[in-house]
Design brief:
It contains 17 helices and no strands. The chain is mostly helical. Helix 6 crosses helix 7 and helix 16 (273-297) packs antiparallel against helix 17 (302-308). The chain is globular and about 50 Å long. It starts with a helix and ends in a 6-residue tail after the last helix. 30% of the residues are buried. The model has no long low-confidence stretch (mean pLDDT 92).
Length: 314
C-alpha cells in the first residue's frame, strides 16, 4: 500500500482501538454472578448480545470473520497481514492430513475449507504459500510428525514474508518462534519425549538456536532461565520452578509478553504495524471473553478465572 493509503487505514484503526474493552470492563465481568448477567453486561458493548446468548462461540467466530474481512479490504491483502490469517488454514490442513478429516474446521482462513479439501485430494497446492505446499508434498507417515511439519512450514513462511517488512513484525515473529520452542521444550520434556523427537518438533530458531535447547533438554535439572537470560524473554517474570512445572502460567506469560511487544504499534503513525497490532488485540479480547464465559458456565471461582485472563492492549 502507498503511504497515503496507510494514513487512511491507520486512522480507521485508531478509532477502533478506542472501542477495545479495557481491563476494568473485564473486572466487571468477573464480578457477575451468572452467565446471564455476564451476557447482559456485554450487551453494553458492540458485541451482539442476542447472538452471544444463542451460541457465543459462533458469535465470536463471526466477529473475527468480520474483522479479517475488514482488514483484508483495508490493506488489499497485504502479505504481512495474510501471514497471520493463514494460521487458520494450517488448522484446517491438520484436520485433513493429521486428523483424517475429523474435527471442526474453521471458516476464518484465507482459503475456504472445501478448497483445501480439494487441494489435498488432488495433490494440487496452487494458492498456498510455497513452504506449506512443499510440506504437504513431503508429509511424514505419523500424525504428530505431520502436524510438526506443517507448523515448521508455517513459521518458515512467516519468516520469509516478515523479514522483508517492518522491524517490529520481524522481531515479533522471531519471538513467536523462540517462545513456541520454549513451550515445546517444557511440554515434551514433561511427557518424557526423547531429545530426537523434540528436535523434530522445533520450529526455526529466533535468537535461541536449536543446539542450546537440545543441550539443556538432556540435563536432569535444566536451568531454563539461563537459556532466556540474555534475551528479551527474560522479562517473562517467572522463576525456574514455575517454568518447569506451571505450564498454564508460562503460556499466559508468553501471551502477555508477545502482546506487550506488538503494542508498540500504537505509537507508529504510518504502516501495517498498527493494523496487525489491532488484529492481535481483538483476538486477545475475544480469547479473554471466551475464558470468562466458559469459566462462568463451569461455575469457577472468580479468582481462578482472573488468573487465566491475559493482559489487554492498553
Amino acid at each position: 500500500m502507498a503511504e497515503k493509503d496507510y494514513a487512511y487505514a491507520v486512522g480507521r484503526i485508531r478509532i477502533l482501538e478506542t472501542k477495545l474493552l479495557p481491563a476494568s470492563f473485564f473486572e466487571r465481568l468477573l464480578k457477575t454472578a451468572s452467565v446471564q448477567e455476564t451476557l447482559r453486561l456485554l450487551a453494553e458493548t458492540e458485541y451482539p448480545a442476542e447472538a452471544l446468548a444463542v451460541d457465543y462461540e459462533e458469535a465470536f467466530e463471526e466477529e473475527l470473520e468480520k474483522l479479517y474481512r475488514f482488514l483484508r479490504g483495508l490493506t488489499n491483502d497485504a502479505p504481512e497481514l495474510v501471514v497471520f490469517l493463514h494460521r487458520w488454514d494450517v488448522h484446517n490442513l491438520k484436520l485433513l492430513v493429521v486428523a483424517g478429516g475429523h474435527g471442526q474446521p474453521s471458516r476464518l482462513g484465507v482459503i475456504p475449507f472445501a478448497e483445501l479439501k480439494r487441494m489435498v485430494a488432488d495433490g494440487d497446492y496452487t494458492g498456498l504459500p510455497q513452504e506449506l505446499a512443499d510440506a504437504l508434498r513431503q508429509l511424514p507417515s505419523s500424525s504428530p510428525a505431520r502436524a510438526a511439519a506443517l507448523d515448521r512450514a508455517y513459521y518458515r513462511y512467516g519468516r520469509r514474508v516478515l523479514a522483508k517488512g517492518p522491524a517490529l513484525l520481524r522481531d515479533y515473529w522471531q519471538a513467536r518462534r523462540d517462545l513456541l520452542n520454549l513451550l515445546l521444550f517444557l511440554r515434551l520434556r514433561k511427557k518424557g519425549v526423547s531429545v530426537q523427537e523434540f528436535a523434530g518438533f522445533m520450529v526455526e530458531p529466533g535468537l535461541i538456536d536449536h543446539r542450546q535447547w537440545l543441550d539443556y533438554y538432556t540435563e536432569d535439572q535444566p536451568q531454563v532461565t539461563k537459556v532466556l537470560e540474555f534475551t528479551p524473554y527474560r522479562d517473562l517474570g517467572l522463576e525456574e520452578e514455575e517454568l518447569r512445572t506451571a505450564l498454564p502460567e508460562v503460556e499466559r506469560a508468553i501471551d502477555n509478553l508477545l502482546l506487550e511487544m506488538i503494542a508498540t504499534a500504537k505509537r507508529i503513525p504510518l504502516g501495517i504495524e498498527p493494523l496487525i497490532g489491532f488484529l492481535l488485540a481483538k483476538e486477545r479480547e475475544i480469547l479473554n471473553l471466551r475464558l470468562v464465559i466458559t469459566g462462568k458456565l463451569n461455575k469457577l471461582p472468580e479468582e481462578t478465572i482472573r488468573r487465566r485472563l491475559r493482559n489487554v492492549y492498553f
